[in-house]
Every structure is written in structure tokens, then in C-alpha cells.
Amino acid sequence: MTRLTIAPVTRIEGHAQVRIDLDEKGEVSSAHFNVVELRGFEKFLIGAAIEEAPRITPRICGICPTSHHVAAARATDQIFGAQPPQTGRMLRELLMAGQFIHSHALHFFMLAAPDFLLGDAAPEERNVIGLAKRSPEIAKKAIEVRKLGQRITEAVGGKPIHPSNAIPGGMSRPLTTDQQQTLLQSAKAGLMIAEEGWEIAKGMMDGFDPSFGAVETAFMGMSENGTHAISGGEVQIVGKDGKPLGSFTGEDYLHHVREYSEDWSYLKFCKLASGEYYRVGPLARLNIVERMGTPKADAALAEYRKVFERFSQAALAYNVARYVEFLSACERTVELLEDPGITGTDVRTRTGGVVQRRGVGIIEAPRGTLIHDYSVDENGIIERCNLIVATCQNNYAMDRGVEDVARKVIKNGELTEEASNRIETVIRAYDPCISCATHAIGRMPMRIEVCRPDGRGGTKVMIREVN
């Protein structure tokens, strides 16, 4: 058997590899998305005070710390029986909108765009540096709009990278009028950039191949009475045909979701209790909701559905769906900052002691549904912790998508640069965050391995490492 390895997979957050096994004829016999990092947060949170969870969990990742911060804070709200007042909820939503702006802009412009704007350029050019050389205005605008997300995180969350202001019962401090006005000016400029960028995003829909990375699954995502939601409402589940399969809001997620492992990866997998596989994230959310809830994003959603229809299984649709959400987040940010209530001073409901021993915080992170589940003792010390992140829930689809593309692009046992990039493209469509799904110890590069029989009863292994 011959093994081909793509290592590491490039332009994703974290380190992973693709392993491809070939048969005697040089054809793909199997292929897997392989993650070899170790995750430890669920263990070393045990013994910590529950009110520390919103401060500890943002360290899971530097790309999506806000998602973990808010999910943990929502869990602590339940444990202390202290639901945030209106202004506190608005500030958390603004903080989450900033997370979507920062994360989606990063992925769309800097990680995914080279696949579509630079095509099969040389590897040293097929990246954000190459994009800056080819289209400097796009690169400048991408950096500018990402700054908006970071400014929101700093002003509302307290720090630009690992926010700390979301606490049990709300937020630790209000937003000042000066901060509001500064952010509003930046948000309006960011919205203009998002509108201009939609023309680029629409170009991705031209001639797309719906069979690229083909996999059929159910979908899961949050909505509020049919409207796109990231921090409220119910989590909805729809089947492969788009028909509703159920919904949940809190600890009853265990009636719907099952975690499991495979021997080729440290990254967990998820399936529904029925045994059906599912996906989360931008494509899932757009498959579930009726509307985005903001005018420009609703118009973009209508254009998106002219191509991908009301319900889509296409992996590459993730990239365009992500942009519709990015546009919506920019609009919603302006709406929140124009609301006089955003600078209200009633931002926190005071807490007493522990009122219930378990809390489950569920939000929509940029990559998909995020669940933080904590159980504590009578003093609020964490006894059990379970974190289910989007990348684990999309793991099956990425794994199967890798094999689908590998079978199409690897011919005569040869892993060309073009073939490698095609395989990585289907992974990048999901925008996996390996840092969230695992926790690395040391340097672990991405590897792609391809194995084939050597004709003498042994195995020949071809390895490609990407640092």
C-alpha cells in the first residue's frame, strides 16, 4: 500500500493533515482528514470556580475567543440564576457580532479568497501575500474591516484578543458614549466595505460544482422564529431533505447529539441520536432560517438562493453563506450602535450563590453551534465540563469530502500540487478551527501521506509536509 500525506493543511486555524491510501493500481482506496493534536481544556477546568470559566475558555483559541467567552458566561447565568438585563444582552450580542466580523473577514478574504482569485498559482503566491500583490485594494479593505471586529472586542469585551467583560448575570461595565460613537463610525465604514465585497462573493457562485466534496447530511443551527440568530432562540435540526427533525435550547442537547471517536484522529466526531450525520455553520444556518433580519443581508440571501436554492448540500456554498452572514453582522453592528440603549448602565443582574448545579450555554460561533456544559458542586466548583465545538460537528463531512475530492483528482498515484490544493480547498470551505477542537502541545505540522504497495510485499509512503 502507498500512502500520500498532505501535511500540514494550509490556510486553516491550527494543524492537521490528510492521509490518502492508494491501491495496487495507484487509485485512492481511502482518505482521511487527520488531526493529531491533544485537547485538554475539559480536564483542567475541573476544580476551577465556575465564574472563572468565561475567563479561562477564551484561551482555547485566539481566533474565536469571544464565542467561548459568551457561551461560558451564558452557562454561568443559569448556575447563578441571574439573567442579564436588556443592555447586558445587547452588549453581548454586539460582542458576538464583532466576533463574526473578525472571523468571517479573516476566512473569506485571507484564507478562502486565494482559492478563487488566485486559482492554481504557485504555493508561495497562493496566500494572503499573493492576494495583496494581485489585488492590494481587496487586501487593504479586508484588514480594515477585521480591525472593526477587534475594536468591538476591545471596547465591549475589555481586551482585543481574550475578552473578559462577560460575567455571570451580564457584563462587568457599560459602553461609554465616546466608545459608541467611535465604534459606530468604524461600523458604517465596515458596512460599506462589506457591501462592496459582496460582488466578489457573488463571483464564487459562477460555475460552482455542487458535487465538489460531496456529502449529504442533516443540518443544525440556531434561529429565532425563523430569523438568523447567534445568541438567542432555539437550535433547530433539519434532515437531509430540509424537513424539521427537532429542536433544543439547553441541557436537552444530549437527547439529540452524540459524540464519538475514530482511530485516525484525536478530533472527536458528532452525529445525531438517530445515527444520522449532520453539519453546522454558515451553510447549516442559511438552510434553516427564513431570513437574515437585516435588509442588505436579506437581499444577498435572496441572490444566494437563486443559485443554491432554498436548501443546499454543496460544500463550496459554505464560502458564500459565510459572506451573507458577514454582511448581516456588519448591518446588525450598526443597528446596535445606533440604539440609545446600548450605552445604558444597567448591564448586570447581581448574583448570589449557586441556584442550580448545572448550566449549559449555547450560542452560534462563526463556525457553527457551540455548546458549553458545566456541572458544579454546591460551592460553584466545576466537577464536570463538556465542550462541543463546530469543527467536531463538521469533522465527518470534512473527512468524507476529502475522500471524495481525492478520488477525483489523484490519478496514477500522483499527488500533484494542483490536486493537493483541491483537497485542501474542501477543508477550507468549512473553516475548521483545530485550536478550538483540540489543544496543541508543541509544534505539530500538517502532513499529507499517500501509501501504495511497493510490489515487493511492502509499502511505499510519499509524504508532503507544509509548515
From TrEMBL:
PROSITE patterns: NI_HGENASE_L_1, NI_HGENASE_L_2. Signal peptide: none annotated. Ni(2+) binds at residues 61, 64, 433. GO terms for molecular function: ferredoxin hydrogenase activity; nickel cation binding. Fe cation binds at residues 64, 436. Mg(2+) binds at residues 42, 387, 439. Keywords: Iron, Magnesium, Metal-binding, Nickel, Oxidoreductase. The keyword Iron-sulfur does not apply. Its cofactor is Fe cation; Ni(2+). Transmembrane segments: none annotated. Belongs to the [NiFe]/[NiFeSe] hydrogenase large subunit family. This is Nickel-dependent hydrogenase large subunit.
